[in-house]
């Protein structure tokens, strides 16, 4: 295999562990904390999880290991979208497992949860594992989006585990995957299978976090990757001085990625979906906000700028959400076939005009035709609009163009307005993990095995105090049920992990809010540059601006 110099060097990197995990397996003991309860709906959650609810939080510390000696056969699953550092979770899990007992075995179930259901696996060994240390991607065993949520699936999973003598399953995933891990753990406990289930917090979107989970892995690397690209565009923008760049970044349900990139690069405009929802902003108001920046900068001779847009922002615009809801109803059942049979767009437009309320039609009418057609051509398997496919960066640049045309007609000087569009998503999901993510993920995997060794199930691997150097990190675990509440999903009340949205009274947003007026009018760009792997810790091991601000640093 031909390896790049960086790839060779990353294989040799030794991830840093929290202090209490460095003592050696024999010198790690457990300190139990208080019993826990779910963030909401305690009666309903406790009733659904009678065997795993209300367990105590735990931390690991230096002391005599009192875990029972037994051979462990562990299965690991990568679930959902890729995130930098996933390989190191598997490597940390493997190293802890082998350090405890060289006869322990690690099964890697291939292609996500479906690998467990289909009994498709690889037994992980040194030679294979060593090819993936400190590298990006999920290609070590592959990932998938199959959900483990039915009694039939759980029964199959239990049989596969019994067949191989598996004592524990580690599920590496986001909020939905770890919700599934909690439900699977409850099933395994209720049916006395002897199989433990442990989760690890993964998502580049950053929405799997709370007072216990300070960051999901992959967020650090992904936002640093996007910020490098945005900084490069800002430098080009300030050099050419003739384009407004509209940049969409990942973040369907929350704006953590957009906010972190804004804190790193100081663009002229960054939309925050949670603020849009809180203020009930219309498309017109958002377009006016961006147009104000264009005009103010044009008055200073600066006909260029950068706008960051979170992927899911249009879903947070009340009038747009109402429009989507009406479109879904308009095309329900046989009406979709009737619509698709119409001969041309004019006929379809008339059908739409007849079926929408006047308020929603007003919103629909101001959209560029390409966006209008996207709303009707791209449907999910349930027949609903796939909002994530809407090119919101092009939508807002067009709406701003229309606003500027109105202002020019009224005599306002608006300068020149030329646009370019970008979407940064897949570019960040499989990047070489930053030192932070390499260390954090290895610690999560190592820690997950310690939870298994001490007999815990239905727990999330937890490493905290992350804004400090790694030797000050605190390792332990928390019951997944602590993060859960009841939500309406597909017409049913379901127990799910509560998503963490950007807090408008939180320190990261407050810092952004205090500076954005200056950024909107002036050129205040900062250029983070590429992720650094070698050099002083102050450069190589820094964490996100979000985490630093949350910790008052």
Plain-language structure description:
It is a single chain. The protein is an alpha/beta fold. The chain folds into two domains: 246 residues, Rossmann fold; 252 residues, Rossmann fold (3-Layer(aba) Sandwich), CATH 3.40.50. Helices cover 43% and strands 15% of the residues. The strands form three sheets. A nine-stranded mixed β-sheet has the order 1-2-13-12-7-6-3-4-5, sandwiched between helices. Helix 7 links the parallel strand 6 and strand 7. Helix 3 packs across helix 19. The longest helix is centred in the middle third of the chain and has 22 residues. The two termini are 43 Å apart.
> Low-confidence stretches at least 5 residues in length (pLDDT < 50)?
none
Beta content comes to 15-25%
Q: What is the helix fraction of residues, given as a range?
A: 40-55%
Strand line-up in the sheet with most strands: 1-2-13-12-7-6-3-4-5
Distinctive features:
single chain, 553 residues, alpha/beta, Rossmann fold, 2 domains, nine-stranded mixed β-sheet, four-stranded parallel β-sheet, 22 helices
Summarize the structure.
The protein is built from 22 helices and 15 strands. By secondary structure, the protein is of the alpha/beta class.
Helix-strand layout with pairing:
Layout: H1 5-11, E1 28-35, H2 42-48, E2 56-62, E3 73-78, H3 86-100, E4 105-109, H4 113-117, E5 121-123, H5 126-129, H6 151-164, E6 168-173, H7 175-190, E7 196-201, H8 219-240, E8 244-249, H9 256-265, E9 269-270, H10 273-278, H11 283-299, E10 305-310, H12 318-330, H13 335-340, H14 345-355, H15 358-365, H16 369-377, H17 392-409, E11 419-424, H18 426-429, H19 435-453, E12 459-464, E13 474-479, E14 484-489, E15 492-497, H20 507-521, H21 537-540, H22 545-550
Parallel strand pairs: 3-4, 3-6, 6-7, 7-12, 8-10, 8-11, 9-10
Antiparallel strand pairs: 1-2, 2-13, 4-5, 12-13, 14-15
Helix pairs in contact: 3-19, 8-9, 9-20, 11-17, 12-15
